[in-house]
Protein backbone atom coordinates (compact mmCIF):
# COMPACT_ATOMS: atom_id res chain seq x y z
CA UNK A 1 0.00 0.00 0.00
CA UNK A 2 1.27 3.49 -0.83
CA UNK A 3 1.44 6.28 1.73
CA UNK A 4 1.66 9.00 -0.92
CA UNK A 5 1.59 9.25 -4.70
CA UNK A 6 3.52 11.89 -6.66
CA UNK A 7 3.07 12.29 -10.42
CA UNK A 8 5.32 14.56 -12.52
CA UNK A 9 3.62 16.23 -15.50
CA UNK A 10 5.13 18.64 -18.04
CA UNK A 11 3.25 21.87 -18.79
CA UNK A 12 3.87 24.58 -21.40
CA UNK A 13 2.94 27.49 -19.13
CA UNK A 14 3.28 26.97 -15.38
CA UNK A 15 1.44 30.13 -14.30
CA UNK A 16 -1.45 29.46 -16.67
CA UNK A 17 -1.69 25.90 -15.32
CA UNK A 18 -1.70 27.21 -11.73
CA UNK A 19 -4.46 29.67 -12.60
CA UNK A 20 -6.52 26.95 -14.29
CA UNK A 21 -6.36 24.47 -11.40
CA UNK A 22 -6.89 27.22 -8.81
CA UNK A 23 -10.06 28.28 -10.66
CA UNK A 24 -11.26 24.66 -10.41
CA UNK A 25 -10.86 24.84 -6.62
CA UNK A 26 -7.54 23.02 -6.19
CA UNK A 27 -4.63 24.43 -4.22
CA UNK A 28 -0.85 24.29 -4.40
CA UNK A 29 1.71 23.54 -1.73
CA UNK A 30 4.10 26.45 -2.08
CA UNK A 31 6.71 24.72 0.08
CA UNK A 32 7.42 22.54 -2.97
CA UNK A 33 6.83 25.10 -5.72
CA UNK A 34 9.11 27.54 -7.53
CA UNK A 35 9.52 29.03 -10.99
CA UNK A 36 10.08 25.58 -12.53
CA UNK A 37 7.46 23.47 -10.78
CA UNK A 38 4.30 23.68 -8.72
CA UNK A 39 2.96 21.04 -6.32
CA UNK A 40 -0.72 20.58 -7.16
CA UNK A 41 -2.52 18.98 -4.21
CA UNK A 42 -5.13 16.56 -5.55
CA UNK A 43 -5.93 14.87 -2.25
CA UNK A 44 -4.50 14.06 1.17
CA UNK A 45 -2.02 11.61 -0.32
CA UNK A 46 -1.84 12.57 -4.01
CA UNK A 47 0.29 15.40 -5.40
CA UNK A 48 1.04 16.25 -9.02
CA UNK A 49 4.19 18.17 -9.75
CA UNK A 50 3.44 20.43 -12.71
CA UNK A 51 6.79 21.20 -14.33
CA UNK A 52 7.84 23.57 -17.07
CA UNK A 53 8.62 21.42 -20.13
CA UNK A 54 12.26 22.52 -20.20
CA UNK A 55 12.74 21.59 -16.53
CA UNK A 56 10.83 18.31 -16.94
CA UNK A 57 13.10 17.31 -19.82
CA UNK A 58 16.13 17.41 -17.49
CA UNK A 59 14.67 14.36 -15.77
CA UNK A 60 14.36 12.36 -18.98
CA UNK A 61 17.50 13.26 -20.94
From TrEMBL:
A Pfam cross-reference name: Ble-like_N
TM helices/strands, residue ranges: none
Ranges of residues in domain Glyoxalase/Bleomycin resistance-like N-terminal: 5-41
Organism domain of life: Bacteria
Protein name per the record: Glyoxalase/Bleomycin resistance-like N-terminal domain-containing protein
Protein source organism: Gordonia crocea
Amino acid sequence: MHDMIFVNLPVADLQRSRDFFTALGYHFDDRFSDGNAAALVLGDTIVSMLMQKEFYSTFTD
